[in-house]
Design a protein that fits this description.
single chain; alpha+beta; Butyryl-Coa Dehydrogenase, subunit A, domain 1; Butyryl-CoA Dehydrogenase, subunit A, domain 2; Butyryl-CoA Dehydrogenase, subunit A, domain 3; 3 domains; four-stranded mixed beta sheet; four-stranded antiparallel beta sheet; 46% helix; 16% strand; binds flavin-adenine dinucleotide
Length: 385
């Protein structure tokens, strides 16, 4: 077993770390205050990310992407996790589901998204279906050569800056005693008649990274807008879910490492009762727990990436990495607030922001409960009657 990074892996890691420190972290506080990433900054960062070879790093090199494998992507995501999401999101990693583009879709969606000329968003969740995503009710009714979309989505991240949405809709029911919904994914351009995007209210964290509601009212789409195969939308979505959960796990590791670094520095310098607080066991043990958990989360995440590259990742393993890393970040940020004492809850120091920003990681892309269900299901499968 070899834990050493190859020179290519080290290069990815170091390039990303430098990029984050030089180009992203300096903007963090402004974005936090304004809640917006100005368009001009977004474009500048896009260009810088492209020049640094970081843009669309997850997409195939044949189409202009970086062609990084999962281990390299995990290293990149770990570094990007150090900075706030609104900024790391400017180094866009298009939804890998776009690899399902074919024919004309390659020129209209895949290539321009990889080039940074167009931005996608992923629209699955609905007011009536979150964890139970297969229960969505947005309908796509076939009408001659077209489909007509009706329904709504919510919590769709960065739909406000996206040029098009990858939308999941019901296209029929399976036969048999327990019929299930057949789901198809569609590419829907902003500006298509009957498609409206509205920003949702502010979330507790991740200022500058917005969620939106999407409304479809008799929205007519030619069949050419189907991504992948009709009725097989979840087949293409699965790959996206694996890689986005790996990204979340790696982001959480990177963020937790940054928080630990600040907590250690503070604990070593802040004195009470004549000694640095790190020398009081109550604080020293917290630091030890934080470091140990982060290391475990990092190893689990890197092993997931390695398994993904070998085609050996299971839903349960993906769930373990996503659940453990996001929960580790939650505990680490909470300990950090405690270690900073009163200053930990004050705005201005990033500690309270890290604590707020961390909360959603246990919710999106499959809640911790859903990850545990999947792990338990896989463990007990051989005993199923
Ligand atoms: C900031 C943010 C950004 C998001 N971005 C996107 C996006 O870009 N695209 C997109 O499609 N979606 C997005 N989502 C949606 C996200 O994936 C869902 O919020 C998540 O899957 C949970 O669904 P829900 O909120 O409807 O909660 P629910 O499914 O209603 O769950 C509520 C609670 O019940 C628990 N629960 C549900 N079922 C079970 C069960 N069987 N066993 C035990 N516990 C259970 C859940 O774990 C949770 O604690 C985003 C969400 C947020 C908050």
């Amino acid at each position: 077993m070899d834990f050493e990074l190859t020179s290519q892996q080290s290069l990815v890691s170091e390039t990303a770390r430098r990029f984050v420190a030089t180009h992203l972290i300096p903007h963090e506080e402004n974005i936090e205050q304004s809640g917006e990433v100005p368009d001009i900054l977004r474009k500048q960062l896009l260009k810088l990310a492209r020049d640094a070879g970081l843009y669309a790093a997850n997409m195939p090199a044949d189409f202009g992407g970086g062609g990084l494998d999962s281990v390299e992507m995990a290293l990149l995501e770990r570094e990007l996790g150090r900075v706030s999401l609104a900024l790391s999101n400017c180094v866009l990693r298009p939804a890998p589901i776009l690899k399902a583009c074919k024919g004309e879709q390659i020129e209209r969606y895949l290539k321009p998204t990889i080039a940074g000329d167009r931005v996608d968003c992923f629209a699955l969740t609905e007011p009536g279906a979150g964890s139970d995503a297969s229960n969505i009710s947005t309908q796509a009714r076939a009408d001659g050569d077209d489909f007509i979309l009706n329904g709504s989505k919510h919590f769709i991240s960065h739909a406000d800056v996206a040029d098009f949405a990858i939308v999941f809709a019901v296209t029929g029911m399976t036969e048999g005693p327990r019929p299930r919904k057949k789901i198809t994914s569609f590419l829907v351009d902003k500006g298509t008649p009957g498609f409206e995007v509205r920003r949702m209210g502010r979330a507790v964290g991740n200022r500058g990274y917005h969620q939106c509601e999407l409304f479809f009212t008799d929205c007519r789409l030619p069949k050419a807008q189907v991504l992948g195969e009709v009725d097989r939308g979840f087949d293409v979505a699965k790959e996206w879910l694996f890689s986005s959960r790996l990204a979340i796990a790696a982001n959480c590791v990177g963020r937790a490492e940054r928080v630990l670094g600040m907590a250690v520095e503070w604990a070593a310098s802040r004195k009470t009762f004549g000694r640095p607080i790190a020398e009081h066991q109550g604080i020293g043990f917290k630091l030890a727990d934080m470091a140990t958990e982060i290391e475990a989360a990092r190893l689990l995440t890197m092993q997931l990436a390695w398994k993904m590259d070998r085609g050996e990742a299971t839903e349960a393993f993906v769930g373990m990495a996503k659940m453990f890393s996001s929960e580790t970040l939650g505990r680490v940020t909470d300990h950090a607030v405690q270690i900073f004492g009163g200053l930990g809850v004050m705005q201005g120091l990033p500690i309270e922001r890290f604590w707020r920003d961390a909360r959603v990681e246990r919710i999106w892309d499959g809640t911790s409960e859903i990850q545990r269900l999947m792990i338990a299901r896989e463990l007990t499968r051989p005993y199923k009657q």
